[in-house]
Amino acid sequence: MKLWVTGLNHRTAPVEVRERLAFKEQDLAGALDQLKQWPGLQEGLILSTCNRVEVAVTAEDSVDPQNCIEEFLTLSQKIADRAWLQPYVYGFGGSDAIRHLFRVAASLDSMVIGEPQILGQLKEAYSVAKERGALSGFLETVLTRAFNVAKRVRTETEIGASAVSVSYAAVELAREIFGSLKNRKVMLIGAGKMSELAARHLSRSGVSQILVTNRTRTRAEEVAEMVGGTIVEYERMYAALPEVDIVITSSGAPDYILRKDQAKRIIEARKNRPIFIIDIAVPRNVEPSVNEIDNVFLYDIDDLQRVVATNLRGRFDEAVEADRIVSEEVERLEGWLRSRQAVPLIVSLQNQFEQIRAGEMERMRGKLGSLTPQQLEAVDALARGIINKIAHGPIAELRKNAGNSDGMAVAEVIRRAFRLDD
User: In order of start, what are the domains of the chain with their CATH numbers?
Assistant: First the structure.
């Protein structure tokens, strides 16, 4: 049996190729049914995201799994010429396939190292494959181990602890200023995509209320609905600002909409309680000198990008430790597999010894004359004791070496010495 993974990702294929190969959610079950019935394939899983399409299988030793998967992708995704696909795909087998699946689950193979979404996507792919009866053996074991590896990486490293998106960096900075964000009030000035994302993160972090204001009320209504916010008329923006703890600006205004003198009046009205202003507009919405006012914390897009860059460097450092954990877990799983391979050999050895004992007892029964049941039992116990002592040495060696790299060599020597069938 072979374990194999074939796929493409953001490093090997441009987005137009990934889009062409991606499986729609509603088509995934049917595709798994097709994969499950492919000649020579025993188990299968399809992972399809915006950044990768991968097919993992276990296959019979007689088949070429890379060829099978490429044919499957060509047919299922209606690609006219398989040669078009081949420059973009990669293939991993055996230990390399295990390592790859572990790294994918731990987000070490992602576009943004440490992002948490891929683990959820892999678990969802696992659930669908399990529901369709496409997982029932070794591949399932590897995948459940991969989930445990991802958990261990998250627990033992800081790979996912820092923000690596501008919108989430804003939330991190807000936490540094206020500590808890519970019961804080946010205002969105402008309704850009990045401010909407930041507002979503803030909402999940416990802010009590999100106010939305925009020159175009229709867009303000759309964003307010998305983030569970309340609309403030644009003309009332300045009057509402003293009540707000966090301000996110992304207005398309050509000039500053918040200047230093206005910010001074706002902080006075707040009785010097801190206010955090995130200006992610280009050109900027807030006059830079606003940052000179005590208890006003102003960050623009460049400040946030610097936070992201620093955090990304930190994640790369953590990835080194995470890769060490992956290597350790790959070795552990391989050791377990080797130990499993020793079990049939041990059983064969025990069966052979038992056949020898039973045969010799039967052969000698007539020569021993008339024995009482007690005497017969004693002779049988003697024979069993001798056999067990002879078997103890080779069985102990098999068990001792089953999990290490010498296990296969030891097993082969014992197999030949006792002339055991494969």
Answer: 2-161 (3.30.460.30), 166-308 (3.40.50.720), 341-417 (no CATH)
